[in-house]
Amino acid sequence: MNSVRNFSYWEHQAFFGPADVAIIGAGLVGLTAALYLRERRPNWRIVVLERGALPAGASTKNAGFACFGSVSELMEQEQRGDLQAVVAARWQGLRRLRELLGDEALDYRPVGGYELFRDGPDDALAADCTARIGHFNDLLGPIIGTRDIFRPVPGVGRRVGLAGVGTVIENTQEGSLDAGRMVRTLLARAWAADVPVLTGCAVTGLEAAATSGPVRLHLANGIALEAGQILLATNAFAPELFPALPVVPGRGQVLVTEPLPGRRLPGTFHYDHGYTYFRQLPDHRILLGGGRHLDFAAEATTVPGLTDTVLAYLENLLHEVITPGLRPRIDFRWSGVMGFGPALAPMLDWVQPGVLAAVRCNGMGVALGAGLGWQAAQKLATVVH
């Protein structure tokens, strides 16, 4: 039986009826945009469409770092554009997320972040980064509200049991959060605000009206839903609907160990220009992820999966540096997909009449997502229906 024929009248009316705004993607950007839009337009009919049972990109698959960049990352990014504006967007996005949901709901913890440099292979990079601490403190101090952002912390690697680590640079303003609780809270808030979040509703195509009028969305379940405006908030998956968009996927692979109550890692950790990262979770497990820089081409995919090359790199780092002398059991492995592009700033633009794209967070979705959702909501709210 054609599934569309088995939807009742009530289901068509309550869930798939004409909407003022349809948001494609139930990740951090899409859900915050829905909540901010509801504040601006309390009488509009807003619906969120999600292809998977849970957000399919990175919103529930990231490492839970509330960060805005380590020194080595910032050194590279400064060459690509207005770094102050980009860091300001990240910092403001994190503050907006915390204000919207609250630190308790996020399990936000201001634990600080640490960039590691291994003795020998990383000596030159460590020297360069150390020399640039004062520059970045001065550059970003007016944004963060303090010039005590980055500082060297000699000996911390040995004190916390990391092997072969020499230089460590602390980011005093970094924190961590629980990505699962973040999205659960957003979903609950959306439904409470009378914004249905419909999972298993993949959008297969958009059909704009010949003249000004609603956009028709075609769903994989056979439904055709009409909306006055569309927000495309699918990040790396956006080119599936608009192939010309300058967004390239980047898959991140992550593993989590068994509980290790004997270890005490104090915050979040960055390594190898930020391409690798780890932290100890509240239940004493160690989360470790990254490694896409080993083969950018292979990881430029939206297909979920794990590769032997990346997993071997992560497990080697775990055994040699993070838990020397131990070989902890790996209890969880997964991958998430981020969206990257030629500019550091995310993309917020009308891609066709009635369709606004809010995508391309360049691996900083936790930091940028709520701010990008807020900006998208302001643009959508200004359109008169």
Largest sheet, if any?
Answer: 8 strands, mixed
Strand content: 25-35%
Q: What's the CATH superfamily of the largest domain, by name? A: FAD/NAD(P)-binding domain
* Mean of pLDDT: 95
Separate helix tally? 12
Summarize the helix and strand pattern as letters. Answer: HEHEEHHHEHHEHEEHEEEEEEEEHHEEEH
Task: Write a concise keyword list for the protein shown above.
FAD/NAD(P)-binding domain; 2 domains; eight-stranded mixed beta sheet; 25% strand; 12 helices
Verbal overview:
By secondary structure, the chain is of the alpha/beta class. It folds into two domains: 3-59 and 180-246 and 343-381, FAD/NAD(P)-binding domain; 111-175 and 247-340, 2-Layer Sandwich (D-Amino Acid Oxidase, Chain A, domain 2), CATH 3.30.9. It has twelve helices and 18 strands. The chain has helices at 9-15, 28-40, 71-77, 83-101, 103-106, 123-131, 133-144, 156-159, 179-192, 296-299, 308-322, 365-381, and strands spanning 19-24, 46-49, 65-66, 113-118, 150-152, 165-171, 175-176, 197-198, 203-207, 215-219, 224-232, 248-257, 268-271, 276-280, 286-290, 330-340, 347-352, 355-359. Strands 1, 2, 8, 9, 10, 11, 17 and 18 form an eight-stranded mixed beta sheet that branches. Strands 5-6-4-13-14-15-12-16 form an eight-stranded mixed beta sheet, with helices on both faces. Strands 3-7 form a two-stranded antiparallel sheet. Strand 13 (268-271) and strand 14 (276-280) form a beta hairpin. The longest helix has 19 residues, at 83-101. The mean pLDDT is 95.
